[in-house]
């Protein structure tokens, strides 16, 4: 029985949709209320029992490494000032039992290539992939739900959701047979089909649990459109040798790669915030009343 102990975070993208905010700051460090997007994803993986976090970075992502590093000067200042609650917050970013490793993706060659960059660090183990652009909230966490499914099936699991047919060109779309509540035995997967040819409206969201078999498929796969190696194409090839399942997760997904999704996440999580949520909700109601 293999367990999922490692998570890969592909974060080498340039975040051009958020210019000028991302000209000098990684999009993964954009804060939703009081935490950057990448921290939400790492906390999600940690809640699933994953302790080794692997970041596939690019040349402009040093601040992500700094965020998960120990800030001795900050911690010392907070300790001397007696600001113990803030000290606990600073230290909680990287728990003592969590390992962070970084590998560079030297060229933007697609999500499949980014995952392939983590091959040597993952080794022959199953692993999770979390896209920080997709802020996903569930109880238990989305990746924890998927790790549970993997424990039962010992096969790759893709997070999926029903999407409007007019939006199929934004997603990888899967087809297959229902084998359990919320679980589909995948027989086909196609990247961003037009609505009139999409086989279903079941779209892949930004969470995966994959077997190490995906690496040989990505290594031996020709480049697709734009010279990129697509993860969806690798999964399609993997399906010829292994079972792949799609899991309808229980929770909410915010597409924080778009400005609208980012704003929606900010408002919703702002209202749920333990300290300011009630006050923020009151302000929203008062504003709407005017």
Automatic annotation (TrEMBL):
Which reactions fall under this protein's catalytic activity? Answer: alpha-D-glucose 1-phosphate + UTP + H(+) = UDP-alpha-D-glucose + diphosphate
Establish whether keyword Nucleotidyltransferase is in the entry: yes
* Gene3D superfamilies (alphabetical): Spore Coat Polysaccharide Biosynthesis Protein SpsA, Chain A (3.90.550.10)
Q: Which UniProt keywords apply?
A: Nucleotidyltransferase, Transferase
Q: Which residues form the Nucleotidyl transferase domain?
A: 12-268
List, alphabetically, the InterPro entries matched. GalU_uridylyltTrfase_bac/arc (IPR005771), NTP_transferase_dom (IPR005835), Nucleotide-diphossugar_trans (IPR029044)
Question: What EC identifiers does the entry list?
Answer: 2.7.7.9
Which GO annotations describe the biological process of this protein? UDP-alpha-D-glucose metabolic process
SUPFAM superfamilies, alphabetized: Nucleotide-diphospho-sugar transferases
What's the superkingdom here?
Bacteria
Enzyme class name = transferase
User: Which GO terms of the molecular function aspect are on file?
Assistant: UTP:glucose-1-phosphate uridylyltransferase activity
Q: Which family does it belong to?
A: Belongs to the UDPGP type 2 family.
Query: This chain belongs to which protein, by name?
Result: UTP--glucose-1-phosphate uridylyltransferase
- What is the originating organism of this protein? Nitrosomonas stercoris
């Amino acid at each position: 029985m293999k367990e999922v102990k490692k998570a890969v975070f592909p974060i080498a993208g340039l975040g051009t949709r958020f210019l000028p905010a991302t000209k000098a700051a990684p999009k993964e460090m954009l804060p939703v209320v009081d935490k950057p997007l990448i921290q939400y994803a790492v906390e999600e993986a940690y809640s699933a029992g994953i302790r080794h976090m692997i970041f596939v970075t690019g040349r402009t992502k040093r601040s992500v490494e700094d965020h998960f590093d120990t800030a001795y000067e900050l911690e010392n200042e907070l300790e001397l000032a007696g600001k113990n609650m803030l000290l606990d917050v600073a230290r909680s970013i990287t728990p003592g039992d969590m390992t962070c490793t970084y590998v560079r993706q030297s060229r933007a060659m697609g999500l499949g290539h980014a995952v392939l960059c983590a091959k040597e660090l993952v080794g022959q183990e199953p692993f999770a992939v979390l896209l920080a652009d997709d802020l996903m909230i569930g109880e238990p966490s989305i990746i924890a739900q998927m790790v549970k499914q993997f424990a039962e099936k010992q096969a790759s699991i893709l997070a999926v959701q029903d999407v409007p047919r007019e939006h199929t060109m934004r997603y990888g779309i899967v087809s297959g047979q229902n084998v359990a509540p919320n679980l589909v035995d995948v027989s086909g997967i196609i990247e961003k089909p037009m609505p009139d040819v999409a086989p279903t409206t079941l779209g892949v969201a930004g969470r995966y649990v994959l077997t190490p078999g995906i690496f040989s498929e990505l290594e031996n796969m020709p480049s697709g459109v734009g010279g990129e190696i697509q993860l969806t194409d690798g999964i399609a090839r993997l399906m010829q040798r292994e079972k792949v399942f799609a899991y309808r997760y229980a929770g909410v997904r915010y597409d924080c790669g778009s400005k609208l999704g980012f704003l929606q996440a900010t408002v919703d999580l702002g209202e749920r915030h333990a300290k300011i949520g009630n006050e923020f909700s009151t302000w929203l109601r008062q504003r709407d009343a005017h």
